[in-house]
Inverse folding.
């Protein structure tokens, strides 16, 4: 191998590495392709967090535009966004449904009881605001995995037909709502309701 190749190979590798790092430096980690965007909600049958006699399925979200909010009391950013989500519900009628999970209920991670989780949730929502129409309890976090959730908070904007139209990673604050989510949400509100198939 001649000497010019010895110098060219490291130079090419260095250039590719710099390009890769610059993409990561200037990219928004919350803006990533979602495997479920544009797809119908994956099927589920999960209980209400506060009432295990009540179960919800993907059919429970049909007919109205809904923002499914993945959250937990352990999530600091979730606590920060609760007052603003509550304001959106009270002032603009935005429909939020909570998808709650708590890894401390898992014997491998913690020792919380369901009663303790319910108490912590009730206390937090009384203190910071309750934006939720209802809360689905993702008991073993399987449904979060089906949605491709990597943390909390994450939000899924769901149209009247039950299709996921946006996946937003991170909190919803005034800027995110105004510039990213609200335009789509209002567009979806104006779409006609389609007949729900039995």
């Amino acid at each position: 191998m001649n000497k010019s190749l010895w110098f060219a190979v490291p130079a090419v590798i260095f250039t590719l590495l710099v390009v890769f790092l610059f993409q990561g430096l200037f990219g928004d980690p919350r803006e990533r392709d979602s495997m479920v965007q544009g797809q119908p909600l994956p099927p589920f049958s999960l209980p209400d967090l506060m009432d295990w006699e009540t179960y919800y399925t993907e059919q429970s979200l049909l007919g109205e535009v809904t923002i499914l909010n993945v959250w937990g009391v352990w999530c600091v950013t979730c606590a920060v966004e609760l007052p603003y989500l509550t304001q959106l519900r009270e002032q603009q009628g935005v429909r939020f449904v909570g998808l709650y999970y708590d890894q401390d209920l898992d014997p491998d991670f913690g020792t919380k009881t369901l009663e303790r989780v319910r108490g912590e949730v009730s206390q937090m929502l009384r203190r910071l605001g309750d934006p939720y129409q209802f809360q689905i309890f993702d008991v073993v976090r399987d449904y979060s995995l089906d949605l491709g959730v990597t943390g909390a908070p994450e939000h899924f904007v769901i149209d009247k037909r039950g299709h996921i139209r946006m996946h937003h990673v991170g909190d919803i604050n005034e800027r995110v709502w105004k510039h990213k989510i609200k335009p789509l949400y209002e567009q979806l509100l104006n779409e006609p309701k389609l007949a729900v198939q039995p």
Q: What stands out?
A: The chain has a mean pLDDT of 85.
